[in-house]
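Hi U.,

Before I forget, here's the chain from the pilot set. I'm dumping it here mostly so it's searchable later in email.
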Amino acid sequence: MIHTKVRCREITESDVDKIADLLTRGFVGRSRDYWIQGLRRQAFRAAPEGYPRFGYMLDDDGRPVGVLLLIYTSRKEGEETAIRCNLSSWYVDPAYRNYAPLLTKIAQRHKHVTYFNISPAQWTWPIIETQGFRAYCRGIFFSVPALARVPRWNEIEVIPPHAKEIKGLSEAETELLTRHARYNCLSLVCRTPKGTFPFILQPVRIRRGFIAPPAMKLIYCRSTAEFAECAGRIGRLLLRLGKIAVAVDANGPVPGLVGIYTERRGRKYFRGPHQPQLGDLTDTELVLYGP
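Structure:
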């Protein structure tokens, strides 16, 4: 069937309800409330000027039949402000699949933007690589931080959602931690003789067959070495919250942590001028929409 009125255009706020319906239809197991919450968070978050707030859609005479959600953020890279874009959820109604390349081409047209995909299905890896994407993360290290030693001089602090100032952190990192606390993440600082180290973790369930033990995902750290330095203290805190494991993006076993490394899941890709940093999943689909 030829659909003569199909066009690709930017998603606007007035499209949100219909986009949520489309995504609910396309992703079995995700409720409409799941999509509405994420889209609302995208609607109210700060985003770089001149880029789409939600992403792009295929429009057939006013009706969305395809969608690619995009999450744009800006990052300081030395003296330069770099733009990055999380290629998030993608779905096209079966009758319109021949228009899918138009959607992806328009969504990834900026040469100066770093595009990245943090949740590619394994069967799509070869396809993504033929599009010029490179893997920057090849697996996950499932750590048990409570098994690490706890230096007596380490102190840990949970950051509330509306903290105005955090001793030892810049204004930018303070805002990052408080913003993610408002996204229901666990924001922490660990104070050591080597400095004040910020961390953001998110509750997840690591599904193994019918078993889904409660765990945390490391959303932000400056480096995995800093996380290993504070792992013992963080692990004791997490035990009180009923969490045992912390999943850490990695390209191999993480020195200083006890756990298991696997490449069966966790691969992440990027294309563009700035390779994403391991241990930085802030302002991505994982945070805005949830695991």
